Structures are given as C-alpha cells and as structure tokens.
C-alpha cells in the first residue's frame, strides 16, 4: 500500500543513508546495481507507468521519489529504450502540483487526435494518471484521489498538464486510482480500467477528457487479501484458436500467493461496457480461487505498453514487494524493473494460461553459448565462473526422463551463500528458497517461507529459462506457463550453479549465455 510519509523524514533518511554509505558506494554499485534491468541512478522507484512505443522508441515512466530512498511525494520518472533491454534514464516527466502527487497511470498515442491536443505535425501522447491529494488524506477525507491528464507533442521531452484537471473526479471511494487506458478499435472509443478499492471500474470516452462510467467487475472474484491496484485490460488471440479473449490483469497488495504483493488475471469477454469472465475460466477460478501472473514475491504492478509494433502485448513489472521494498540493502537507489516480457494466451483443458516470456530482443545481447549434456548424478556441477559470469546470464535448461523426486538447483558464491530453486516432482511444485542468500534480515517476510508454485502433474520432461542478474532470478517454466521472480542480496556475486537430485536416470541439456549490454 502506498504509505503517506512526511517529506522531511524521508529526505532526512535519504541524506543520512547517503552519508553512511558514501565510502562504500563502489561496493554497493558493484554488488547490487543490475547489469541489464532498469534501475534509477538515485532515489526511490516503484510501479511502471505510462508505457508506450512511438517513432522507434519505447517509453517507460515509473513512480519516482528523487529526493529519498523510500516512498515519498510521487513523480513520474522516465526512461527510454530502442529495444526494451538497454534503458536510458531521462529527466523527470511529471511533478506533483496543487492537485496532489502524481500516482500511477498510463499513456496512449492519440493517433486520430481525438483529444484535440495535437497539431498537423504531431500525434499527441496523452498521459492519464492519478492525483493523490496528501492534505485531504491527512485530514481523513475519502475523496483523496482523482484522475488527471497531460499531453506531449515532442515524444515526452516536455509535458503540458490539462488546464481542466481532474478529468475524472472521485465518486466517494478512498482507493480510486491507476487508470489504464486503451483504444477499443471495434467500438472506436477509449476504455479506462481503474482500480476502485477491491474491484475494477470501467469508463469510456471519445476524447480522453470526458469519461462515462460503464460498469464494475471483481466483487468476490479472485484474490481479495488486499487493495486492488494497477489494472490492465486488453484483447489477446488464443494460441491455436481463431477466437479472441480479453484479459484483465489486476495487482493486489497484500494477498499474493506467497505473501505480500502480486498480480492476478482474469480471462473473459468485453462488449465495450462490461467485462465478463469466460465460462471455461469460471471453472478454473472456482478451483484455484485466484489465478496468478507470477508466483514469485517480486513482480508487482505489471502493465503493458501501448502502440507496440505487430500487435504484440509487452508487459513490465516492478521487481520488489511492499513487505520489504523500503528496507532492501541499497542506499543510493531502491528497486528495479523486471525484464520486459511478451504475453500470450493458451487454452487448456484446465483453463487459460497467460504465458509470459522474455522479449526476443534479449537474444541479441546473448554471447556464445556454453552447451552441456549431463546424465544426472546426485550432485552435479553445471557452471563455474570460468564458464560465464552468472551475475548477467540467461540459461535454458532441458530436463528429460525425470522421476518423482526433487531437482534442486543452487546459485552459490565462495562465502557459502546460495539461492535454491527447482522442481519437486513428488509434491508437484516449483520452489525458490533464498533464506541463505546473503543479507536477509530486513523488512517483513523476506526470507521465509519458501516460495512455491503448484504444478498439475509429475513431469517426465520439463524446461526452464533462467534470467539471472546480480540481484535477481526470473524463472520461466515450460515456455512461461509458470513464472517465479525473486530478488536477493548476496555479499559476493554468485559464481557457480549446481544441481542436486535424490533420483536416478534423468538427464540435463542446457545452453548458458552471458548477457553483454555494455
């Protein structure tokens, strides 16, 4: 939950933190600054915002407090990339004003100039965001949050806030935020999905300025362990079928499958006014209670980019968890994003799977592969530092002839610290255990319990793609059918990968690549 904290306290914390670690800055950079995940040069970052593509450039905005390393008065930070992998931080895009802090939202390329903000030379980019009024919040008011817009005619170098903000006033709901807007091609209208406490509200507009309430969704459906945040509604074609379904991603904090914040999704149909879950998905939801985008503890507020080429749906998330995000052991900056991921929709006999895998652009940074084939023993040394640098790597694992036992991979360093992860093919689950990963005594529920993701069967063959950076692992099981994302803070970079198993007869083939982005 976004916490309202005194600016003075935050600034003081930041300054004392800078002073305390000034001598150790190279060590912090060396140990914890990610190699290829975006992180701000300094300050606090959380939710991705305003994601869009235009004129060959991807734009990533994010919740940002430049003057401290904890949550504070929110701005929109800004970064750009030509390929979704190498990001360049830009000047701050949106600052707080008299209407409040600039909370999460989205941005759209207004190709038809429906807003009237454009001119003959430029399609406007319109940002839609939440105003959070700290004074009204302090006074215990309900109508704290409203929606505003701003526009840019120079590819987000400068922004002009709309003079008649807010464009959507508060209807009497305390948590009323995070507008995600898309163009509904079929009905030629803008559609806004908005988080309204424990459900989603849908609004429509012809011009991005005047919004009409259409419906709500989510009461007593899915996870309700915390407030709903950062929704995203979009259509996707179903793999191997002619049909198209609408997907609604909803982030929740707390109430995730492994405690803390997480993202869930729903699959259904949208008629321009109302979102209704599909009959097949209804049975899945009754069985699973909530359907999760990522089972790890560190993928929150994942939302998608507008105007991406070839109608791909690309998402990116905040790689942390509100249980400990403000206490992680970095001082100069806090937080990074996940790797950008392409999502696709698969229909199975059990329901729908929103698969997500790293964007293909990551492959162009992969070095020459290290390839090995191994008949597995109880203990197997897979990769050492003489093979590749495991603080910036992608590893494709292919397990065959598996038995009903446990396959435990371990990322290790010379200090004896390790991150354990793998497949328990007896209890039918994926797992990550970071209890011995280095620094673990911060925040709430960081190291315990072990993260688990259920599997529907005992596997004979299984694949995993690992994306490993200095302080993170992203595990994509069987082409992204199950995903686990987690962060860690070792006192020395991990340099070895091993695999232990209590079964016989299985084999492993893998390709390991070093990621070179510098």
Description:
- The chain is mainly beta and 518 residues long.
- Helix content is 7%, strand content 44%.
- The protein is built from four helices and 33 strands.
- The chain has helices at 7-21, 25-32, 134-138, 279-288; strands at residues 43-54, 57-65, 75-81, 88-94, 101-109, 125-132, 145-152, 160-161, 176-184, 189-196, 199-205, 212-217, 227-237, 244-253, 262-270, 275-277, 300-304, 314-318, 333-334, 341-348, 351-358, 370-375, 379-383, 392-400, 406-412, 418-424, 429-433, 451-454, 462-469, 472-477, 482-487, 496-501, 507-514.
- The strands form seven sheets. A six-stranded antiparallel beta sheet has the order 22-33-24-29-30-31, with no helix packed on it. It has a six-stranded antiparallel beta sheet with strand order 23-32-25-26-27-28, with no helix packed on it. The chain has a five-stranded mixed beta sheet with strand order 4-3-2-1-19, with no helix packed on it.
- Strand 9 (176-184) and strand 10 (189-196) form a beta hairpin.
- The two termini are 36 Å apart.
List keywords for this structure.
single chain, 518 residues, mainly beta, 6-stranded antiparallel sheet, 44% strand, globular, disordered N terminus, ConA-like_dom_sf, glycosidase, Glyco_hydro_32, Glycoside hydrolase family 32 protein, hydrolase activity
